[in-house]
Amino acid sequence: MSHLFEHNGAEGRGYNQPPPIVGADKLRFPAGLVRKSLPKWPRISEPEMVRHYTWLSSRNFGIDTGFYPLGSCTMKHNPRVNEVIAQLPGIADIHPLQPEHHIQGTLSIFHEMQDMLAICAGMDSVTLQPVAGAQGEFTAIRCIQEYFRSNGELNRTKVIVPDSAHGTNPASAAMAGFEIIEIPSKEDGRIDLEALRAVVGDDTAAMMITNPSTLGVFEPEIAEAADIVHQAGGQMYYDGANFNAILGRTSPGLMGFDAVHYNLHKTFSQPHGGGGPGSGPIGVKAHLAEYLPGPMVKRRPILPDDKLSNVNVEWWYTWHTPENSIGKVQQWHGNSGAVIRCWAYYRRYGKELKTMSEHAVLNANYLRHRIMEEAKVAGVRHLFEDGAPVEVVKHEFTLSLGPLKEERGVGAMDIAKGLLDKGYMAPTVYFPLIVPECMMVEPTETESKEVLDEFAKNFVEVLQEDPDVLHEAPTSTPVRRVDEVYAARNLTLSYPFEEE
To answer: 312: alpha, beta or left, given left = phi > 0 and alpha = psi -120 to 50?
Structure first.
């Protein structure tokens, strides 16, 4: 692996900052801020630097370079028109503190996104401020918490989650101070209503669940589950990570949910991965709206003093924060770039977003059946080792490689590493935890039948590979198999400079 810091040419080589406009004798800095030695920048010319980063980019794997079937993360193509719109000067070059009459266009986009997200999820009000799905979860749970506090229901201290939940669900609730109650799934991976009834009560604040679940399975009894929680006085929270599987077909509002977070960086094509950028707005029913974090955007008719007398527009857009808001959950007004890109996606496709969801479900079911048809003797089963198979999944599916591990000593991690040698990004492994030797696959709606056929063929070839070869995989990547446990426990987060 190449590092810029390996380039150390002659002194003075490379780019130099111009001398300061103010004379050095007039510059005064606190002694504690003055360097004792020159910074250890690499001495490198511009062509060398460009070559380094171009070479480095060719070592990365991304959705633009190959099939990326990462379960639960929706790694799909991001239309380039989104980038063009997000980079328009009137959008990209504004400052968060500019006055409202300078940014009416951006505010109108924010307002339209709030309305669009509210409609497609069956909610009454939306804030765009959270900048990640997990932050959206935390924000929604805090709104629910404040709702109960304002009603004097301080006894509601417990949040219910199924054992198939995303790990961020219990983590977000715990950060808000709630006790987590986990309930088991049935053999088919769906929610157990009797287990739910056994734990709800006067201390229940909310239930957090996604539908379809992380297993890719739709919960047909979700409305009944919502009734059970509501009858106990609790709230229903919808994890929107899998919203791309139902968009245009149904909505969290129809299922009985009170709050939802959206992953704009999954459902609506905003690029993500590698830590961001993301966007996790939340939508709520009317009784929770007064607790949403601001600023949000509202509109009113144009008035004479709005400084727009010569412009033919009907509405004036302005920031506002609900009176009983829980307060900001991050700086400024949300991830504006992500919101703009997703607005462009929604504007371009509109009602066709229903087709997006249908194709995501079609691709997942097609790929699952292709793999299972060709891998009947390879020790692979759908969902659980002994659980009843589900005939139709939604946007993703899980495979259990437990039988393969037992028969040949090859686990999910070995298959994942073998797929890297085939030129694919590996699916998610070992999640959800309730599936033995789990592999979660999500093809998304943007892949063609030819891509899915080729992946199924290569997947089965990897399943049938010699165990000793798979235990050494990958062998063709820039970095061979790493000791992941060691890496997780011994993080190196900065370049290891040598002390002089």
So the answer is: beta
Contact (Cβ atoms closer than 8 angstroms) between residue 289 and residue 309: no
Distance (Å, rounded) from C-alpha 317 to C-alpha 298? 6
Q: What is the distance between the alpha carbons of residues 43 and 55, in angstroms, rounded to a whole number?
A: 18
User: Tens of pLDDT along 154-201?
Assistant: 999 999 999 989 999 999 999 999 999 999 999 888 999 999 999 999
Specify whether the CB–CB gap between 281 and 128 falls below 8 A: yes
pTM of the model: 0.90
Instruction: Give the pLDDT score at 226.
Output: 98
Please give the sequence-ordered ranges of beta strands (E in DSSP) within 148-240, or none if there are none.
158-162, 179-183, 204-209, 235-240
The Cα 261–Cα 241 span in angstroms is: 8
Question: For residues 207 and 225, is the Cβ–Cβ distance under 8 A?
Answer: yes
Of 388, 469, 456, nearest in space to 427 by CA = 456
* Domain positions in the chain: 1-16+38-59, 81-351, 356-487
Residue 441, SS3 per DSSP: strand
What is the CATH code for 356-487?
A: 3.90.1150.10
Distance CA 86, CA 154 (A): 44
Q: Residue 209 carries which side chain, given as an amino acid letter?
A: I
The whole-angstrom separation of Cα 500 and Cα 494 is: 17
The architecture in CATH of the region 81-351 reads: 3-Layer(aba) Sandwich (3.40)
Give the residue among 235, 182, 246 at the shortest CA–CA distance from 213.
246
Longest dimension (CA), the chain: 80
d(CA 443, CA 193): 31
